[in-house]
Each structure stands twice: as C-alpha cells, then as structure tokens.
Amino acid sequence: MSGAMWRSERAVVRFLQRRIISVRNYSNAGDNHFDIIIAGGGMVGTSLATALGKNSRLSSKRILLLEGAKEFSWTLQEGKYSNRVVALNPNTRNFFSSLGVWNAIEDGRYGTVRKMQVWDGLSNAMITFSHDNLIDPVAYIVENDLILDAVNREAKTLNNVKILNEAKIKGYKLKGHESNVNSVVMDNGNNYTCNLLLGCDGANSQVRKAMDVQNMSWNYDQMGVVATLHLSEANDNIVAWQRFLPKGPIALLPLADNLSSLVWSTSPDEAKHLLGLPNDQFVDAVNGALWKVHTTAGFVDEVTKAFDGFMQSLIGRSNAVRQLPPHVASLEDGSRAAFPLGFGHAINYVKDGVALVGDAAHRVHPLAGQGVNLGFGDAACLSRLLGESVYNGKTLGDLDDLKHYECERQRHNVPTMLAVDGLQKLYNTEFTPVVLLRSVGLQFTNALDPLKKLIMQQSAA
C-alpha cells in the first residue's frame, strides 16, 4: 500500500470517527434540548403547555414543562370545595373549550355568575351587572384544583409535551454572545437547552430576573382572606356580591345553591385577627361586613339621594332598588387562609428567545377577578402568534415575533391593571370629597346600561 493511499484511508477513518462522535453528541444533546421550555407550571403554565402542544402548527416542536411541585393528584369530593377559586371570564372559557378541558370542568362543577351587585359601604351607592344585558354569563367560579386537574390530564395526552415534576431550577443562562440557545441549569446537575424559554414562574419570577428587565411593583398593605361559606338559605345562588369597606372590599362568589366563596381584602392586622377567630365569630364578622351601616357625612347621603332622583326623572327608574345580600350561616371547617396582595408589571415581557407569561409579567389586585384571566389571555395569544411565526417560516423565539406578543398583551393588560389599581386606591379612603365623587360616579354608571355593557365586554376580553 502506498503512503498516499494509507494517508487517504486514515483520513477517511478520522472523518468517519468524527461523524460518529458528532452524531453521538447530537443524540445526547437532543435528549436535553427542547424547542420550548416552560419554567413554572400551575394553572397558567400547564394551560400554556397544553395550548402549545395542541397547536397543529407546532406539532413538530418538543416542549418541556418544568413543574416545581410534585405530580398533581386531585379527586373531586362531593360537597367539599377548595377555598381557592377563580372567576373565569367568557374568553377564558372559550380558551379552555379550544383545549378540550372545559368539558372536564363541566363534568366536575362550577358556579355561574349571572348578576353582580357592587356597593359602597360608606354611601350605599351601587352598581349592578346582569346576564340580561349580555350574551354570556358574567363569570364562572371554578376551583383552582379542578382547573389544574383538567389541564394537567390533557397535557399528559400530548406526545410532544414532556412534564418534569419536582423540577428544582438552579439558574438560567440566556442566549447571547456565548450561545445561540437558552440553558436551564438544574439543582441535580442536569442541563436543558431550548430555543425559546417561557417564564411562568410567578410574581417572584427567576426568569424575569435573569432577563434583567425592570419590574414595577408595590404592596397594597392588604391580605386576601379566603374561605368557603354556607348560606342560611338554599336558593338559586347566581349573584356575586361585593362591598367596598374602609379597609378593603369583601366579596361572595357563588359555588352552589347554598355555598359561596369568600374573598375579603383587609389590613394584615385585621386578616390575622380574622384567621384566629372561632368559626362562629368569624361568621358574625362576615355578616357584619356585609350588613353593618357605616357612619358617613350627612351631605353625602343627601347628594346621592338627590342625584338618584334626578337620574330617575331622566331614565324612568330608580338606582336605589337593590337586592339584599345573603346571610352566612356557617363556615366550612379548615377553609380559612390568607395571602398578601400587591401590584407588579414588567416593563418588557420579552427578550431574544425569552418571554414572560402570567404573574411573571404582571400581578394585580383581586378585586375585579382579572388576574388569572390576564394570564390565560397571555397563553392563548402566545400560542397563536408562535404558531403563525412557525407557519411563516420564522425562527422560533425570534425577537421581532415575540415583540408582537408583548405589544398585543400590554395593550390589553396595562389599561386593565391601571383601572383595577385605580379602583383600589379610589375606595381605600374615607376622605369625604372622594367618597362623594366615587358614589355619584357609581350612580351615574349604573344608570347607563350601554356603558355597563361596554365595561363587561372589556372585562370579558
């Protein structure tokens, strides 16, 4: 064999060896490389994984959901409800229907809100929203556990979605000068990479911190006290009640004929006091919050009565006609809990190859029941836009495409959040001129059905 032939064969062997090593390395990298990694599960993260997995335009993409909690297991117990519920708007219901999970919720249970009555504890000015003026019910009250169970079961049926439970994330290395992929470093030493990283890891998002984006946030110095309440009379329980008190609003949300869910926003000291009361005294406190007459400046009552008379002469009906709230009979044992309330909003939702979803991008006061709906809206929007991007031949996670998501969602989220924050501040004072102004404004809005319908349509979007 000539030297030239020998060198040629050696070159071929080295080439084949390099190819074998390359293929082996690609295979090993492929096990830990995903097109999309979702950091954080819960209701929004799992719904997002399901939406992406069921999107026909993304069917070839590998998706990894990193869920910090243990594998979720829940069984519906007849007559026993969880104390954590959400008020889903009609758009969220449509989103769940598109995922194939609303049937599971229907087969379970939910409360339907067909009327809302909101009133000021310092003036009794009120506003009502009813199903009569709308195509859909005002909201659907569903337990968090039921939603998570439904979306989790659906996600597990998808071949292109992998769920890793008890996933403890140590840190992130985002794509940039050193790498064209995102890296997720796990506590156990594993390392996952992806083209697109989606942060669904809550208000204290580590993904957001790794992105180094500015986050506006503040605490409301309030706690949300939740519980499951038994009403004194079984009836057609379809009304959501909310009364604005000096320390924060109290709301009853319908679950079943004789059951409602309590969400009571109040000061941390008052919340601690309420959690420590015996059950019967806690029930008395709830009834007092719904029925107690608060002392107000006399001229506030005079002005609101005069304004009601004026509006009645214009529209032919009185704003003062109201339905009385129910009496609470008892408390579901062990259902009391409390959580802190605050505001948060990331100035930017996206960077190249990274996007924030849900509470990682925004946090809002629960007084309007919009927080989780904003998150589900993010998930629906992002799934749609990513599908369109791939269909148009774009690179998954391209910054220009992600900017479309940021723009579309901020146009919706920011006005909603500012309106909710404004309401919290407007009703968190006993200053008489402000009480008068907000009371007359509430009366005026309640008198105009087209305006109320517009408000409800906005809240359902």
- Per DSSP E runs of 2 or more residues, the count of β-strands stands at 20
What would the average pLDDT be, to the nearest integer? 88
Structural class: alpha+beta
List low-confidence stretches.
Answer: 10-29
In which range does the helix fraction lie?
Answer: 40-55%
Strand content: 25-35%
Radius of gyration: 27 Å
Largest sheet: 9 strands, mixed
CATH class: Alpha Beta
Number of helices: 13
GO molecular function: monooxygenase activity
InterPro entries: FAD-bd, FAD/NAD-bd_sf, Ubi_Hdrlase_CS, UbiH/COQ6, UbiH/COQ6_monooxygenase, UbQ_mOase_COQ6
EC number: 1.14.15.45, 1.14.15.46
Subunit structure: Component of a multi-subunit COQ enzyme complex.
Key features of this structure:
about 450 residues, FAD/NAD(P)-binding domain, 9-stranded mixed beta sheet, globular
Give an overview in words.
Strand 10 and strand 11 (191-199) form a beta hairpin. The model is unreliable at 10-29 (pLDDT under 50). The chain has a single domain (31-460), classed as FAD/NAD(P)-binding domain, CATH 3.50.50.60. With 461 residues, the chain is of the alpha+beta class. Helix content is 42%, strand content 26%. Helix 2 (42-54) packs parallel to helix 10 (371-391), helix 9 runs parallel beside helix 12 and helix 10 (371-391) packs antiparallel against helix 11. The chain is built from 13 helices and 20 strands. It has helices at 3-32, 42-54, 90-99, 102-108, 144-155, 206-211, 268-276, 279-291, 298-315, 371-391, 399-426, 432-447, 449-460; strands at 33-39, 63-66, 85-88, 111-113, 115-120, 126-130, 139-143, 161-164, 169-173, 182-186, 191-199, 215-231, 239-245, 248-256, 259-266, 328-331, 337-346, 350-351, 354-356, 362-363. Strands 5, 6, 12, 13, 14, 15, 16, 17 and 20 form a 9-stranded mixed beta sheet that branches.
